[in-house]
Design goal:
mainly beta; five-stranded mixed sheet; transmembrane; tonb box
Length: about 850
C-alpha cells in the first residue's frame, strides 16, 4: 500500500512541476520576443482554433464542444463533460457507479433531453419498489453511457429545447454527433489516417486505450475506432484511507458470543465505513462508418455502432458481518437466526448496458446551386439493453466473500441464504429521419432555411427475474409450500428436527410495449436589417403508445395502454445590434415531455399479484416555457456576456394519491401534479491579457464564469390529492464560480490552464418539502439527510505538442488536496424509490484528494 502511494505522489509531483516549469519560461520567452520585435499587430479576440457554427442568432445558454475541445478539456466521462460549466450537474445513480443524465434549471433525468445521432436515451425504470426502501432498489434507474472518444460535437442547450431534440427537453438538451471519416484527416489529399490514445486517471485507476484507422481511395472511404476502458470506484480523500475501526460481530462458530476485531478502512463495512464501495468498471465501444461516393453529389454509407459497459459493486455501507447493532442489514433476520452467522452476508450490484446500432446514411451535396444546399437521410436500427442485478448472499463461509456462491441441498449444511433480483429493460428502435438545408433570398434578405422530420418506431419490454433459496433446520414440521425439499434429521446439535431446503424462481414480464413517433420541423435564420437578426423554429410531434398484455400479465399489475399525444414546440431568437460590438438578445422557447411507457404502465407492474385500487390512469404531457434575455459586448481586449432566464414548468409527473372512489383509502399512482417556476443568471467575462498590456505574453487569457439558479415560485397541488410531496429541488445547483487563467504559445506547441472553482453550499430551504398524507398537511420534511458547505478547488492542466503527430496532455486536479463534498455527490442521499445511498456516514461522498490524469495521443 505504501509503495503504491509513493509512486503515485512521485509521478503527480513530476507532472505538476513539469507543467509549471514548462509554462513559466515559455511565457517569459514569448514576452521577450514580443519586446524585441515590436510590430503593428491587429488583435482578434478569441481562440485561434476553428469555432463551431452558431445554433441560432442569440447564442443564449448555448455550449458547443468539438472533438478538439473535448480532448483539450480532458473529458473522459459524463462527469468531465460539464465539470466547469456552472448550473449544469450530473445525476449520480445512488452509489451504483452509473448516472441518470444531466440536471439543468431545476429539473433532471428524463426532463433533460439526451440524443446521440438522433437517438434518445432509454426511459428511466421508475416504480414504487417497496422491498428496498432503505437501500438501493432492484434497478439503478440509470441511462446508457456514451463513449466520448466517438464524438465530434456535443451541443448543449440550457432551457426548453424540444425543437432540437423533441420529447424530454424541458430544462435543456444535450445533442451528440458521432465522428465521420473526414474527422480523422487534416487535409484533403491524405488517403490514410489513424489515431491512438492511451490514458490514465489516478482518482479511479481508470485506463483508456483507443485505436482508430481511417482510409479513402477513389470513391470509397471509411474508418473503424475501438475504445476500451477499465477502472474502479472514484477514490475518497486520501486521509480517509488511513483510518480503521474496531468492529463487533457474532462468533461465526455459533457460540452466541460477541467478538471484536480491528478492520482496516477498506475492510470496514456498515455505518462506520468512511470510503466508497469497491467498484470494478469495464467498457468497450466500436464505431465504424464505411461508404461510397456514388457521384460527386451523392454519398451512401453504412454505420456500425456497438458499446457495452459493466459496473460491479460490493455494498459495504451495510454490515458484511453479523452484528447486534441496531442498523439496516442485508438480511432482516441476521440477529434472530443464529444458524446464519457462520456465513458472510454480502450484497452485490451489477449493472450491464449494451447498445447495438446499424444504419444507412445518405448525403446529397449538390455541386451547383439547386433547390437544396444539402440533404441527409438516415435509416437506423438500434437494440438497447439495460440490466440491473441485486444479489443478497449469505452462503460463503465467513470471512470469505464469493459473489458466485450458492445454497446447497445438504442436510449437514444449513444457514445459507441467497436472494437475487434481476431487472432487464430492452428497447428496440427503427428510425428514419431527414434534414435539409437551403440558403435563399426572400424579399432581398438572406435566409438560412432548414426542413427536417422523421419517424421512430419503438418496442419496449421489462423482464423481472427473482431467485430465493435457503437451507435451515427447524424444530417443528415446516408449513406446506414453505420448503422445496424437507426431511427429518437427528443430529447432535439439534436433536430430532427437520431439514428444509427452498429453491424458488419467479419470472415476470410486461410483454411488448410499443410506441410510434412522427415529427416534422422548420427553422429559419435571417438578417432583417443591419441592426436586427431573427431565428424562428417550430416543430410538431405526434406520439402514440399501445400495449395489450395477456390476462396473466394483467394479474401482475400490467394493463392495456392506448394513448396519443400531439405537441407543438417553438424556439424564437432575436438579436438587436445597435452597434457592431454590442448586442441585446432575447430567446423564447418551449419544451415538452410525453409520459414514458414506464410511467404509463404505472408503478406496480410485474408484481406477484394485482394491487387493486392502484391502476394507472391517463397522463398529460409535461410542458415548459422558457424566456431569456441577455447582452454581449465584445471589445479588443475582453468579451462580456450576461443573461437572465425564467422557466415555467407545468404538469410534471410524480407519485401521489387521490381518495379512492370505490373503497375506503387512497388510489396511489403517477399523476400530473407539479407546477413551479425557476429563474437564474449566467455571466461570463473573458480577458485577453496581452491586449490589456503588451508587457504580458501573447496567448495569456483570463475568464470567469458565474451561474446561479433559484426557485422562483412553487404551486401546491390541488385539494384533490390526499397524499403527495412537493417537487424535490435537489436538482437546482448551488451558485458556482469558475475562474480560468490559460496560456497557449503562439505556435500552440504547449499551454496550460489554472482553473479555480468555487461552489456555494446547497440552500437548505430548497430541500424542505411540503407534504400531505391522508389529508393532513405538514411542512419541514427534508428531501435529503445531508447539507453541504461551500467549497473550492484548484486544477492545473496542460498540453505539450511534440510535433504535429504527438500530443501529451496532463492534469493535476484538486491541486491543494482540499477536502470537500460536491452537491452532485451529496444528492445521492435524496429520498426516492430509486436507488440511493442510505448511509449516515457521508465521508464516503467526499471528493477525491489530489489526483492526476495523463494522456498520450498519436495521430498520423
Amino acid at each position: 500500500m505504501y509503495k503504491h502511494t509513493f509512486h503515485s505522489r512521485f509521478l503527480l509531483n513530476i507532472i505538476t512541476f513539469s507543467l509549471l516549469g514548462l509554462a513559466l519560461p515559455a511565457m517569459a520567452e514569448d514576452s521577450e520576443k514580443n519586446q524585441e520585435t515590436p510590430l503593428n499587430t491587429i488583435q482578434v479576440f478569441g481562440s485561434k482554433k476553428t469555432q463551431p457554427l452558431n445554433y441560432d442568432v442569440t447564442g443564449l445558454a448555448e455550449l458547443k464542444k468539438t472533438a478538439e475541445k473535448l480532448q483539450a478539456d480532458q473529458v473522459e466521462n459524463i462527469r468531465d463533460l460539464t465539470r466547469y460549466d456552472p448550473t449544469i450537474g450530473v445525476n449520480e445513480s445512488g452509489g451504483r457507479g452509473t448516472s441518470r443524465g444531466f440536471s439543468m434549471r431545476g429539473v433532471d433525468k428524463e426532463r433533460v433531453g439526451i440524443t446521440v445521432d438522433g437517438f434518445s436515451s432509454a426511459p428511466i425504470l421508475r416504480r414504487y419498489d417497496r422491498k428496498y426502501l432503505h437501500s438501493a432498489s432492484t434497478q439503478s434507474s440509470s441511462i446508457g453511457e456514451v463513449e466520448y472518444e466517438n464524438l465530434k460535437l456535443v451541443d448543449i442547450r440550457k432551457g426548453s429545447a424540444s425543437t432540437e431534440t423533441g420529447s424530454g427537453a424541458l430544462g435543456g438538451s444535450v445533442s451528440m454527433t458521432t465522428k465521420d471519416t473526414a474527422d480523422f484527416f487534416s487535409n484533403d489529399t491524405d488517403k490514410l489516417a489513424g489515431r491512438v490514445k492511451l490514458g490514465y486517471t489516478s482518482k479511479d485507476l481508470r485506463k483508456v486505450s483507443s485505436f482508430a484507422l481511417a482510409g479513402r481511395e477513389g470513391k470509397f472511404e471509411g474508418f473503424i475506432q475501438y475504445t476500451i476502458r477499465d477502472g474502479h470506484e472514484i477514490k475518497a480523500h486520501g486521509d480517509l484511507y488511513d483510518t480503521g475501526n474496531l468492529v463487533r460481530y457474532y462468533d461465526p462458530n455459533g457460540t452466541g458470543n460477541i467478538l471484536e476485531s480491528y478492520f482496516k478502512a477498506n475492510e470496514v463495512s456498515g455505518s462506520t465505513r468512511k470510503i466508497p464501495n469497491p467498484l470494478d468498471y469495464h467498457s468497450e465501444a466500436l464505431l465504424s462508418k464505411f461508404g461510397v461516393h456514388l457521384t460527386p453529389e451523392h454519398y451512401l454509407g453504412l454505420i456500425l455502432d456497438h458499446s457495452k459497459q459493466r459496473y460491479f459493486i460490493r455494498e459495504m455501507s451495510l454490515p458484511n458481518y453479523h452484528t447486534d447493532q441496531n442498523t439496516p442489514k442485508i438480511f432482516d433476520d441476521q440477529v434472530t437466526d443464529s444458524q446464519i452467522v457462520k456465513y458472510t452476508p454480502t450484497l452485490f450490484y451489477t449493472d450491464k448496458h449494451s447498445n447495438n446500432r446499424i444504419g444507412l446514411e445518405y448525403k446529397f451535396t449538390p455541386v451547383n446551386n439547386t433547390y437544396l444546399d444539402s440533404a441527409i437521410v438516415h435509416l437506423d436500427y438500434r437494440k438497447l439493453k439495460l440490466r440491473s442485478n441485486v444479489a443478497r448472499l449469505n452462503c460463503a463461509t465467513f470471512p470469505n466473500v464469493n459473489s458466485n456462491c450458492s445454497v446447497v441441498n445438504d442436510v449437514n449444511i444449513y444457514g445459507q441464504r441467497k436472494s437475487v433480483d434481476d431487472a432487464l429493460l430492452s428497447e428496440n428502435d427503427i428510425k428514419i429521419d431527414f434534414y435539409t438545408n437551403k440558403k435563399m433570398q426572400i424579399m432581398n434578405r438572406n435566409h438560412n432555411v432548414s426542413f427536417f422530420g422523421g419517424t421512430i418506431y419503438s418496442t419496449y419490454m421489462v423482464d423481472d427475474n427473482s431467485h430465493y433459496s435457503l437451507n435451515k433446520v427447524e424444530s417443528s414440521q415446516p408449513k406446506p409450500n414453505e420448503c422445496t425439499y424437507t426431511t427429518p434429521i437427528d443430529s447432535e446439535k439439534f436433536g430430532k428436527a427437520h431439514y428444509c431446503y427452498k429453491n424458488q424462481n419467479e419470472f415476470y414480464s410486461t410483454g411488448k410495449l410499443k410506441s410510434k413517433n412522427y415529427f416534422v420541423g422548420l427553422s429559419d435564420k435571417f438578417d432583417f436589417n443591419q441592426y436586427l437578426r431573427l431565428s424562428l423554429a417550430g416543430r410538431f410531434d405526434s406520439t402514440r403508445f399501445f400495449a395489450n398484455p395477456t390476462e396473466q400479465q394483467k394479474l401482475r399489475g400490467n394493463h392495456n395502454i392506448n394513448s396519443s399525444y400531439n405537441n407543438y414546440s417553438y424556439d424564437i431568437g432575436i438579436a438587436i445590434k445597435p452597434i457592431r460590438s454590442f448586442s441585446i438578445n432575447y430567446r423564447l422557447s418551449s419544451g415538452f415531455r410525453v409520459p414514458s411507457i414506464i410511467e404509463q404502465i404505472g408503478p406496480f407492474f410485474n408484481t406477484d399479484e394485482t394491487v387493486k385500487g392502484f391502476e394507472q390512469g391517463k397522463l398529460k404531457a409535461e410542458q415548459s416555457f422558457n424566456q431569456e434575455i441577455g447582452f454581449n459586448y465584445i471589445a479588443p481586449a475582453f468579451k462580456l456576456s450576461v443573461s437572465y432566464f425564467n422557466t415555467d414548468y407545468k404538469n410534471l409527473i410524480d407519485w401521489a394519491a387521490k381518495p379512492a372512489a370505490d373503497r375506503v383509502g387512497d388510489h396511489y399512482a403517477f399523476y400530473n401534479i407539479h407546477n413551479f417556476k425557476t429563474h437564474g443568471i449566467d455571466a461570463k467575462l473573458s480577458l485577453d491579457a496581452y491586449s490589456l498590456w503588451n508587457k504580458l505574453p501573447e496567448g495569456l487569457e483570463y475568464s470567469i464564469n458565474v451561474g446561479v439558479n433559484k426557485l422562483k415560485k412553487l404551486y401546491l397541488p390541488s385539494a384533490e390529492f390526499s397524499s403527495f410531496k412537493t417537487y424535490p429541488f435537489d436538482a437546482i445547483s448551488p451558485l458556482k464560480v469558475v475562474q480560468v487563467l490559460s496560456y497557449n504559445s503562439s505556435d500552440e506547441k504547449y499551454g496550460f490552464n489554472i482553473i479555480h472553482t468555487y461552489s456555494k453550499g446547497k440552500d437548505p430551504k430548497e430541500l424542505i418539502s411540503y407534504t400531505r398524507t391522508g389529508g393532513y398537511e405538514a411542512e419541514g420534511a427534508r428531501f435529503a439527510n445531508i447539507r453541504t458547505r461551500s467549497w473550492f478547488t484548484t486544477d492545473l492542466t496542460g498540453y505539450y505538442r511534440y510535433n504535429k503527430n504527438i500530443t501529451v496532455r496532463a492534469g493535476v486536479y484538486n491541486l491543494f488536496n482540499y477536502r470537500y463534498i460536491t452537491w452532485e455527490s451529496a444528492r445521492q442521499t435524496s429520498f426516492s424509490p430509486e436507488a440511493r445511498i442510505s448511509t449516515n456516514n457521508y465521508s464516503i461522498l467526499a471528493a477525491p484528494g489530489r489526483n492526476f490524469l495523463i494522456n498520450l495521443e498519436v495521430k498520423f
